[in-house]
Design brief:
Length: 267
């Protein structure tokens, strides 16, 4: 199979990544084109990794990082779209966030793309979460019956710059808390202390208002087989803090982006 045939399935996703990274499609495509030119000159680049996709993104990353100034966006422009605001995150954390949250790379593959070790990759993702939170900070409700897990999530959320409204341990507590203090994001377990369901609680809440939801659970099959809100995000326990950081930022970033699209469509 030729190099062009090998990478063809990944090009639409690389263009998506490039657009999110640079802030616009034309700029992103210029970097994609440069990557393809380098690949044409040296097809053996694909052999640098066991995964052609990882090798392609790694090549793109090296080319993008070789340019001193990337994006050239006006940080003082408060009217810029959410996708361009992402461009204000420091380049390396921005790449780490997008590789994990948008492109769905594992930590190991994302680290290989950026040519760093996994602990460094996690630090970059957490840094991106803190920087992005400065633009999209919100009030978070946690639905979790395990005290230590709830404390870990609360500390992580606050480290990212968000405010925790409270922790609910049961379906009833979740409903009461959300009605008293409407959250901008919900982190929810599915199996709760009294045998009630966090999934049921979230579905009930979403009949009253819209809010992004991340389910963090040791029972992912219950999320996949039950009545679940869309879109929603799923993290399996035990979780890595960097994964939670990336998904929190992803959920809020794309929720803001969706709202802007809805406003433009109704204008």
């Amino acid at each position: 199979m030729s190099a062009s045939q090998t990478i063809a399935p990944y090009l639409p996703f690389l263009r998506r990544y490039a657009r999110a990274l640079t802030g616009n499609q034309s700029s992103g495509d210029a970097y994609v084109a440069a990557s393809l030119e380098a690949l044409i000159e040296d097809p053996s680049i694909l052999a640098a990794s066991a995964s052609p996709r990882v090798a392609l993104y790694r090549l793109f990353s090296k080319i993008w990082n070789s340019v001193v100034v990337n994006g050239g966006l006006d940080a003082d422009d408060k009217t810029m779209p959410a996708e361009q605001r992402l461009g204000q995150i420091t380049p390396r954390p921005r790449q780490a966030f997008l590789l994990v949250a948008l492109e769905g790379f594992s930590e190991g593959d994302a680290a290989q793309v950026l040519d760093v070790d996994i602990p460094t990759l996690r630090q970059l993702v957490e840094e991106s979460g803190r920087e992005l939170a400065a633009e999209i900070a919100t009030d978070v409700m946690i639905i979790e019956d395990e005290p230590f897990i709830a404390m870990d999530l609360e500390g992580l959320v606050e480290t990212l710059g968000h405010k925790v409204l409270g922790v609910a341990r049961t379906h009833g507590e979740a409903i009461t808390l959300a009605k008293a203090k409407r959250p901008g994001l919900i982190l929810a377990d599915i199996q709760l202390a009294d045998g009630s369901s966090g999934l049921d609680a979230v579905n009930e809440l979403l009949r009253s208002f819209e809010v992004p939801v991340i389910f963090i659970t040791a029972y992912p099959e219950r999320f996949l087989t039950g009545e679940r809100p869309e879109p929603a995000f799923l993290i399996a326990k035990p979780f890595q803090p960097a994964t939670v950081s990336a998904v929190v930022s992803q959920a809020l970033f794309f929720e803001r982006k969706a709202r802007r699209s809805e406003r433009r469509a109704s204008a």
